[in-house]
Amino acid sequence: MVLYLQRSIEHTVSECRHAAERGGPGNDPERNRIVRRSRKWQGAAADAPMWKRYLRGLWLSGLRLSESLELSWDGDAPFTVDLSGRRPKFRIYAEGQKSHRDQLLPMTPDFAVMLLETPEDDRTGRVFRLDAIRTGKPITPTRVGMIVSKMGRKAHVVVDRVRKKVKEKVKDPETGKKKETGRLVEAEVIKYASAHDMRRAFGTRWAKRVKPATLQRLMRHEDIQTTMSYYVALDADELADELWAEFGNTFGNTGAEKGVKPASVRGR
Q: Is 208 helix (H, G, I), strand (E, B) or coil?
């Protein structure tokens, strides 16, 4: 999923660059649209590495959006990276923690490796510096969430499809814009990837690898039942593959290596 979102950034940057190369607006409506877009997204080429790194960080860390924007290299920050022990950890002081308790928590190895890619001289201030190109000020959490969701829609990363009653919209022949008619119709509603879906994906991935108590600490859930929902969602075939892999480790072969057929096929 993170790869598709990164491609969305690259596609936007590519469109802006091509529009700039072609010059100003002409008679072609599509060309005009892209040029307008390039003006709206001026500085997109400079933004791309920042957003790619942020999306990768969300994917690997499992952090809530607000936590990701608060995470700091500074030791006295409410939510900080702690490199003092054998392994990198999160240090969360009471004011930066949902449970209002000081905690020292583990982070996954892949996210730790990503953080350690940062040169030592650059390990100050916010870990993810999402600053507006024009003002240089930090982008607000609400705005960051909107941008990531927009990338999810543009990359067409679908996470859910449901049929529900929605207000009908029709195109106004005069303005060309859609407006509600007030009539309810049944339609498929598509949900595209958001920042929170990155966190859900993190929980699903690590539920296959660690025990519930460990995942609860990784995701900082107050209630273990919230954590258990990730185990209920595990695919039965994937669990069966893990069981057979463990069977092979214990007994010396996986069955599949020796051509063992499923029980439903044997005996026919």
A: coil
SS3 state of residue 179: strand
Pinpoint the alpha helices (H) of the chain: 2-22, 29-40, 44-61, 65-70, 109-116, 141-154, 195-207, 212-219, 224-232, 236-251
The tokens describing 241, both together, are 């593959």
Residue 232 has pLDDT above 90, yes or no: no
- Which pTM was predicted? 0.68
H/E stretch holding 167 reads strand 158-171
Within 13 Å, how many C-alpha atoms sit on residue 76's CB side? 0
Burial of 183 (0-12, 13-18, 19+ CB in 10 A): exposed
SS3 assignment, position 156: coil
Task: Please tell me which residue, 182 or 24, carries the higher pLDDT value.
Answer: 182
Spatial separation of the C-alpha atoms in residues 246 and 136, rounded to whole Å: 52
Confidence at 8, pLDDT banded by 50, 70, 90: low
Tokens for 3, please give them. 């790869």
In angstroms, the first-to-last Cα distance of the chain is 42
